[in-house]
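Q: What structure does this chain adopt?
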Amino acid sequence: MNLSYNLKTKREENNFSQEDVAKVLNISRQSISKWENGNCYPDLDNLIKLSDLYKISLDELIKGDKSFQEKIIIKESGEKMYRWPWWIIFPIMGMLYGLVSMILDHF
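A:
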């Protein structure tokens, strides 16, 4: 069993036409046809929408198609999470301690 077979089977089980699914996903009917014929694969966003539409898990939808599982690429969200280097606090604290010590020695 592969992804293209699963996509077609689930669509038919839910009594949807390719046009119905295309409208829900806001894509062309030809894209649905290409997916179901194995000519190309849906991206992760569309896979999630399909699993919601068919009320099945992503795992159930793509399981068995090893070649597809290897091709899944998760898009970056655009937001870059900056991880602050926690270790920098030690030199900063040392500099502040030295500065405060110098100021207090002057008084």
